[in-house]
Amino acid sequence: MTTEMQEIEQLRAMRAKAMAAGGPERIEAQHAKGKLTARERLAALLDAGTFQEIGALATHNVTDFDMADKKYPGDGVVAGFGKIHGRKVAVYAQDFTVLGGSFSEVQSSKICRVMDVAVESGIPIIGLIDSGGARIQEGVRSLAAYGQLFTRNVMASGVVPQISVILGPSAGGAVYSPALTDFVIMVRRISYMFITGPDVIKTVTGEEVSFRDLGGALVHNAKSGVAHLMADSEHQAFQQVKQLLSYLPPNNAEDPRRVEPYDDPMRMDEALNTIVPLDDTQPYDMHEVIERIVDRDSFFEIQPYYARNAITGFARLDGYPVGIVANQPNYLAGVLDIDSSDKIARFVRICDAFNIPLVTLVDCPGYLPGVEQEHHGIIRHGAKVIYAYCEATVPKISVVLRKAIGGAYIAMSSKQLRSDLAFAWPTAEIAVMGPEGAVNILYRRELAEAADPEALRRQIVEEYRRKFHNPYVAADTGQIDEVLEPRETRPRLIAALDILRGKVTTLPARKHGLMPV
Ligand code: HXC
Question: Which residue ranges make up each domain of the chain?
């Protein structure tokens, strides 16, 4: 064999070692847990044959704790670039078969390298997380390594989309990189996120809890709001990544891509004319309204299990991506509470960062009254909705379907918060407060002195409804630009977005505003 051939054989042998990850036994253990390996994951996520790896041969040089015997090429992360549906992405996949995917200096430098290239080249970053957190044997060096990663996450925030897919444990420091990204996807049964595990919790607080109940996919999707999507399998999670990317631009300097329109832009849906029940205490499903307005089957809900009184998600109108925000009358009457405020504000800011116009469908009785809400800061959290809408410079259109009462009218993309167009349906109710509350305040004395207080109350409530339970006062004063027949909503939104596509607006010069976090 020539020397050149020997060198090539050496390279091939080193690459083969990198491919072998933590060895057959650990790969088998990974599979036994129902999990794919890092390389199998990348193969499932990326277009075939597009993966360009970097750092496959990098190893640590730690010698303490027998680490000299635990050198694996790649050091527990597979990183590089590839394509998804033909669009470039930067990716990394932590390899649990190598030292539990623990985060090391080498891991950090590889991940930071792909992130730096991604930001400079304007391409999304996808992290596949499967890690026991900071590599204990590296001590402060692994903590510093996390600091490097978090800084990259923050610097990339709002510049390129960042998606984290949790595919195993995400423990300790491993949680904070995903938490700094735009979307967190978790998979039932295999994903766990926690800053400290059940054992430490038992020692510190005495609480006994399972991995799943502490930080499983359902907990973070439905309770904590840390995660934004839940999948039944790794393959489904990768489908969600692909779907997400289809609505997002590759970076903040580009617009999201239009797909070839496939649904009639002039389609009018007669069912919308009767979808809002005449009795305003009756609920209806806002999902149905959304589905009937947007391009067929284009609605992709974000955080569907969290704060279900609000709906957030991406959709398309005439092929163009839009962000949909809506109240859900079917759940807690669509009220704005702490969690739904956080959910809406975050989604509005994501859409704004990535040039995705916002369509807001309003049916909301206001901010939720109550001691618990007040004491947990509904004032601070509710302010985020106002702040986010006001700050957003993308095209913003609202449609009031029914209730826009009090704070809900203002906060949910009102014209006064720099929204561009405000529509209402004939069923709109735009008032400072609901009739019962208003009448009690305004006519307390008269009601107390009346011979038949109930009859008087009914009469005044009826008068109040006549006055405020319609969109015409608001239309008369210009707060509402146009009252629509509900079936016209789709063509009117498409036409309005077409006009607003070239919208240019500015914010005051400042370092940054102080969003009430
Ligand atoms: C080094 C680690 C490790 C770590 C796991 N391993 N976590 N090695 N540093 N952080 C190693 C294990 O020693 C083991 O090696 C192999 O990975 C597989 O781990 P197992 O425990 O056998 O797997 P499993 O039973 O599936 O349990 C997975 C786990 C558990 C739940 C993640 O390993 C665990 O609790 N790890 C520690 C989690 C944690 O508390 N991390 C916080 C670190 S502090 P061998 O060779 O025996 O097979 C931190 C702070 C940063 O991250 C803060 C920044 C803000």
Answer: 3-247, 270-432+470-500, 435-468
Establish whether residue 168 lines the binding site of ligand 1, counting it when its CB lies within 6 angstroms of any ligand atom.
Answer: no
Q: Which of 38, 408, 411, 474 is catalytic?
A: 408
Given a contact cutoff of 8 angstroms between Cβ atoms, the answer to whether 325 and 360 are in contact is yes
Whether 133 is in the pocket of ligand 1, judged by its Cβ within 6 Å, is yes
Measured in Å, residue 241 CA sits from the centre of ligand 1 at 27
Asked about 407 being catalytic, the answer comes back as yes
- Name the catalytic one among 127, 407, 411, 428: 407
Report the half-sphere exposure of 375 (CA within 13 A, side-chain side).
Answer: 3
Predicted local distance difference test score (pLDDT) of residue 359: 98
Question: Each residue of 193-225: pLDDT tens digit?
Answer: 999 999 999 999 999 999 999 999 999 999 999
| 286-327 confidence digits (pLDDT tens) | 999 999 999 999 999 999 999 999 999 999 999 999 999 999
Q: How many CA atoms lie within 13 A of 422 on its CB side?
A: 26
- Pick 3-247's CATH classification: 3.20.20.140, 3.90.226.10, 3.50.50.60, 3.90.1150.10: 3.90.226.10
pTM score over 0.90: yes
User: Is 394's pLDDT higher than 80?
Assistant: yes
CATH 3.90.226.10 fits domain 270-432+470-500:
yes
- Tokens matching residue 28: 């088998």
- Which residue's CA lies nearest to atom 46 of ligand 1? 99
For residue 100, indicate whether it is catalytic.
no
317-356 tens-digit pLDDT: 999 999 999 999 999 999 999 999 999 999 999 999 999 9
Respond yes or no: is residue 49 known to be catalytic. no
Element (H, E) at 142: helix 140-156
Q: pLDDT at position 1, please? A: 60
172 belongs to the catalytic site: yes
Left (φ > 0), alpha (ψ -120 to 50) or beta: where does 355 sit?
A: left
